[in-house]
Specification:
The protein has 1 helix and 56 strands. With 594 residues, the protein is mainly beta. A hairpin with a 5-residue loop joins β9 and β10. The longest helix has 4 residues.
């Protein structure tokens, strides 16, 4: 049955869509290392290393000192072997060239060499020349075919040692002796934040290195000089290229242990209280796949505590106060690799973020400072671009978030419950008075406490009005330019938003971030799409101008007020307007109920 010209409309209940993404994703084809061929029923209980020849896997167990062999799909093979006959007592890692194996022993400070049948070859070598720090993992410059000439060993002193096949420790210069070899030396990894006691396995493609950290639950990516891959200038701690990745969010409670690569994909063992019972498979292309078919959408990268969020016409940027990193997402939540660290600028607790699509301004609640970065993540100091500025001179004690309109800034202070209005140099706008280092003539800021806000968090403006999220209440307050509270604020509690929040908008919809998720809120005046229910909040006085096909979605109306329908709406179910509500149907409007 077709309805008459009669339009009622959209949803007051706010739709939320979680947004998330990452550079690296978990394949679904990892495998259990429960084994039937070996000295212990059930297989390894304390994996200390994993190696691959780009097809099969060899896993060494720290309890029984046995090398288990698995094929490419995780089937346990019968040709594993024990390392105890050679004298191994405290194995810490394994490397292979597909035919032979090199096993690192911590107690002996020795690398044992075994053939494919587990026979001890006499050309193993001591690594005592590299020092006494406990070793964690070993990798070589050959994984399939050929004889390794170089090995890299990571140790708990946050250093990756480079040795030749006789145990000679590489240095840039000096005589070739039993402890030194001329060549590229090892490198420190301490500058990246890798925990000394929690750095795990190491793997290489003979050019770059990937090292797991069970504390950060992160896989760090280094070049041969120890440069940590990120986007930014090439320096002693940074290198341009793919950053590392967090495997946590795609597999749950993974604590990464040992790692192996075929220069395309990664296999990482799960480590929990010394026990590792599963091997996870990650690719580099950004999707979780089984046999080439996409199985799930993207998930969040290594964000630990998302804070501020800002957007331009297509993309999003969010700050992570735990890692002091600015992540970049495209419009569908895909993680773009040109995010950047703000640690080099001195920021220690990044919260809010603002952008003009080319530069970024980040608030720091500890330093009471607004840092200015260009698109590449370089801190502006006043030489080539305007420097950041302190907020302490204006009285701001807790600058939570920031908005920029290409000329001025507005900063919401969670302690003062005040929105400060500043010029580009940090001058605080007051109604009158001389222009000084702390004052500028113009429209002043405004208090948000009279509206009921007790801890202002994120702020967004359309250059006329302001929307501010209260961290304590989970509520979005709407203020006009003079700071007057408007009646159309909305709660975010039902959506699950909690903790510190940021907010941004495209002019109609809002995206609100809490430390774990980005939520999408749309106006009740907008069509939600096919097969979705549409609840129209009549108090918003909506004007519907775009056609909408709800499919099996239900159209309902609530609260008193009015709406105007200039479009065609198709639905299979519709509720009548609430008492006191009026729907105006124009000559171009129609509601069809089928």
């Amino acid at each position: 049955m077709k309805a008459k010209n009669f339009c009622l409309f959209i949803f007051g209940m706010i739709f939320l869509i979680g947004v998330a993404s990452s550079l690296y994703f978990n394949y679904g084809d990892g495998f259990s290392v429960a084994a039937t061929n070996g000295p212990v029923v059930g297989g390894p209980t304390s994996i200390k290393g994993i190696a691959t020849n780009n097809s099969d896997f060899w896993v060494i167990d720290g309890t029984d000192k046995f090398v288990y062999h698995f094929d490419s799909v995780g089937n346990n093979q019968s040709d594993g072997f024990s390392t105890t006959s050679a004298g191994a007592a405290n194995v810490a890692g394994i490397a292979t060239n597909s035919s032979d194996f090199w096993v690192l022993d911590n107690t002996d400070n020795f690398v044992y060499h075994f053939d494919r049948n587990g026979n001890n070859i006499s050309d193993g070598f001591s690594v005592s020349a590299i020092g006494g720090a406990a070793r964690i993992g070993i990798t070589s410059n050959v994984t399939s075919g050929g004889t390794p000439t170089d090995f890299w060993i990571d140790a708990i002193n946050n250093f990756v040692y480079h040795v030749n096949s006789t145990g000679g420790n590489y240095t840039f210069a000096g005589p070739v002796s039993s402890i030194n070899a001329i060549g590229q030396p090892g490198f420190s990894i301490s500058a990246t934040g890798v925990s000394a006691l929690l750095a795990g396995g190491i793997t290489t493609n003979n050019s770059d290195f990937w090292i797991t950290d069970s504390g950060d639950r992160f896989v760090y990516h280094f070049n041969k000089t120890g440069g940590n891959f990120s986007v930014g200038p090439v320096s002693s701690i940074n290198a341009i290229g793919d950053p590392g990745f967090s495997p946590v969010y795609s597999v749950g409670s993974l604590i990464p242990g040992s790692i192996a690569t075929n220069n395309s994909d990664f296999w990482i063992t799960h480590s929990s209280s010394g026990n590792t019972l599963f091997v996870y498979h990650f690719n580099k292309s950004g999707f979780n796949a089984l046999d080439g078919f996409l199985e799930s959408g993207p998930v969040f990268p290594s964000i630990k505590s998302a804070q501020g969020i800002v957007a331009n016409a297509s993309d999003f940027w969010t700050t992570d106060s735990s890692k002091d990193f600015v992540y970049h997402f495209n419009g569908t939540g895909g993680n773009v690799s040109d995010g950047f660290s703000i640690l080099s600028a001195g920021s220690g607790n990044s919260l809010g973020i603002a952008t003009n699509s080319s530069d970024f301004w980040v608030t720091d609640s500890l330093d009471l400072f607004v840092y200015h970065f260009n698109r590449a993540g370089t801190n502006c100091t006043g030489v080539n671009c305007e420097a950041g500025f302190s907020t302490s001179v204006i009285g701001s004690a807790s600058p939570n978030d920031i908005f920029y309109n290409n000329s001025d800034f507005w900063i919401v202070d969670g302690q003062d419950d005040f929105v400060y209005h500043l010029n580009k140099t940090g001058g605080n706008y007051t109604s009158a008075g001389p222009i000084t280092s702390v004052n500028a003539v113009g429209t002043p800021g405004f208090s948000i406490s009279s509206a009921g806000s007790t801890n202002g968090g994120g702020i967004y403006s359309n250059d006329s009005d302001f929307w501010i999220v209260d961290n304590n209440q989970g509520f979005v307050y709407h203020f006009d330019r003079s700071g007057n509270n408007q009646s159309d604020g909305f709660s975010t509690v039902a959506a699950g938003v909690s903790g510190y929040t940021g907010i941004t908008s495209n002019g109609s919809d809002f995206w609100i971030s809490d430390p774990n998720t980005i939520y999408h809120f749309t106006s009740s005046c907008n069509c939600p799409g096919i097969n979705k229910n549409w609840q129209v909040d009549m108090s918003q006085s909506c004007t519907i101008s775009s056609n909408c096909n709800l499919g099996k979605g239900k159209l309902t109306f609530y609260t008193s007020g009015s709406a105007t329908c200039n479009a065609i709406i198709n639905t299979t179910s519709m509720g009548l307007p609430a008492s006191g509500a009026t729907v105006f149907i124009t000559s171009t409007g129609r509601i069809n109920v089928y």
